[in-house]
C-alpha cells in the first residue's frame, strides 16, 4: 500500500510541476530603450536607466534603484554588459526611432541582488489571464487582442516591463459564456473556468469606467485560490491599466520572489497528519509550496496518514509557523500520530478553517 501511495504522490508531483503553475519568462536580463545616437556617451548615459529596468524585472521591486548598494553599482554598469546593439523602429507618425538593446550578464546581476539583500524572482512566473471589462456609453466590452488595440498594447507593454507573462481572451463564443452578469462582483467560478481554458495560473479581473475627467478601476487578482482586491484612479485608461499591471506584479513578487541568500534559508521538517488520500497529498504539497517564506518542498517520509516534508524557508521555523497559522486547513498540534517523527513542526490537515 505504501509503495502504491509513493507512486501516486510521485505522479501528483509531476502534475504539479508540469501543470499550469508557471511559464518560463526569457529576457529578464535584457531591455530596449530609445536613444538619440550610437555614440559611447549616449550609451553610457542610458546605462543607469537600462540597469534599473532589468533589476526591477528580476527582483520584482519597483523601488530597487533607491537601494544604496544598487545606487553605488551604477558606476560599474558598463562592466555588467553582456552584449548591446541598435535598431530602428517606425513610430506611428512614420518617423524612425533609434533603439538601444542591452543584455546584462545574469550572474553579475544575481550577485548584485544578493549583495543588496534583494529578492531574485525566478524566471518561472504565473501565466496570468487578464480579463478587463471597459464600461462606457455603448455596450461594455472585454479587452482582447482584437478589441481596443491601443489599450491592449499598453497593457502588454506594462506587463513586459515587469517581466510578468500575460494573455488576453479571444472573446469567442466559448469566452462569452464566462462573462458575468454583474462584473463588479467578480464571479470567481467563471474566472477560474476561463483560466482553465487558457491554462493560466492566475487571473487579473478588472472593471474600468470613466468618472468625470478621471478613470477608475476595480481589480481582483485570483492567484493560488486567494483573491486580492484593490481600486485605482488615473488620468487616462492606458495609465490605469499600466498601474494595475504594476500593482499585480508587486503582489506576485511579494508572494513569490525570495532573497537568494543561502545563509537566510533554513531547512524545516514539517509533519502533517490526517493526509488520507491522493487528493489530500496534492493539496498539502501545493499549499505548502505556495506559502510566502517557502523556497522548496520535498517529501521526506510517509507513514500511513502521516506526511513528513523537508521544507526550505526564508526566515526559518518561526516564519513557516506564522505562514501556516493563516493558511486554510492547517491546524497546529503538539505531537504527531507517528511517535517516531523527528519533525520541527506538527500540523493536522483538514477542513477546519473557513
Structure summarized in a few sentences:
With 354 residues, the chain is of the alpha+beta class.
Q: Key features?
A:
disordered N terminus, single chain, 31% strand, 10 helices, alpha+beta, five-stranded mixed β-sheet, 18 strands, 3 domains
3D architecture notes:
With 354 residues, the chain is α+β, with helices and mostly antiparallel strands. The protein has helices spanning 2-18, 40-59, 68-73, 106-115, 149-162, 173-176, 188-197, 237-256, 278-289, 316-325, and strands at 23-24, 30-34, 81-90, 96-104, 119-120, 124-125, 128-134, 141-142, 166-167, 202-211, 214-223, 226-234, 258-259, 265-273, 294-303, 306-314, 330-332, 345-349. A hairpin with a 5-residue loop joins strand 3 and strand 4.
Chain-wise SSE layout:
Elements: H1 2-18, E1 23-24, E2 30-34, H2 40-59, H3 68-73, E3 81-90, E4 96-104, H4 106-115, E5 119-120, E6 124-125, E7 128-134, E8 141-142, H5 149-162, E9 166-167, H6 173-176, H7 188-197, E10 202-211, E11 214-223, E12 226-234, H8 237-256, E13 258-259, E14 265-273, H9 278-289, E15 294-303, E16 306-314, H10 316-325, E17 330-332, E18 345-349
Parallel strand pairs: 7-9, 7-10, 14-18
Antiparallel strand pairs: 1-6, 2-4, 3-4, 5-13, 7-8, 10-11, 11-12, 14-16, 15-16, 17-18
